[in-house]
């Protein structure tokens, strides 16, 4: 996951990073720069430092997003 402090939402495809997962009440999607839509499967908190209770809150689980390397 890449943290972007200017982002509207943080998202990742890594479900194993999540805690306290919840499913959106209705289907929701994000659109990426290549104009493709990706379904949001869960909204969750991702722990950064469990010892100090630091989390990124409300991270979107979007299984189909991938980072492309050029």
Overall mean pLDDT stands at 83
Structural class category: mainly beta
How big is the Rg? 12 Å
Give a short account of the largest sheet.
4 strands, mixed
Order of strands in the sheet with the most strands? 1-6-5-2
**Parts with pLDDT < 50 across at least 5 consecutive residues:** none
Shape descriptor: globular
Strand content: 35-45%
How many strands? 6
Order of H and E elements? EEEEEE
- Number of alpha- plus pi-helical segments: 0
Residues in helix, %: under 10%
How far is the N terminus from the C terminus?
A: 18 Å
What would your notes on this structure say?
- By secondary structure, the chain is mainly β.
- The chain is built from no helices and six strands.
- It has strands at 11-12, 19-22, 29-31, 37-39, 42-49, 54-61.
- It has a four-stranded mixed sheet with strand order 1-6-5-2, with no helix packed on it. It has a two-stranded antiparallel sheet with strand order 3-4.
- The chain is globular and about 40 Å long.
- It starts with 10 loop residues before the first strand and ends in a 9-residue tail after the last strand.
- The model has no long low-confidence stretch (mean pLDDT 83).
